Amino acid sequence: MMMLALVLTLSTSFAFTGEEAVNKKALNGFKSEFAGATDAAWTTGSNFYKVAFTLNDQKLFAYYNAEGEFMAVTRFISSFQLPLNLQTSLKKSYSNYWISDLFEMASNEGTNYYVTFENADTKIVLKSIDGSSWSLYQKSKKA
Question: Edge-to-edge strands of the sheet including 48-55?
Answer without folding.
Answer: 15-16, 38-44, 48-55, 58-65, 70-76, 98-107, 110-118, 122-128, 135-141
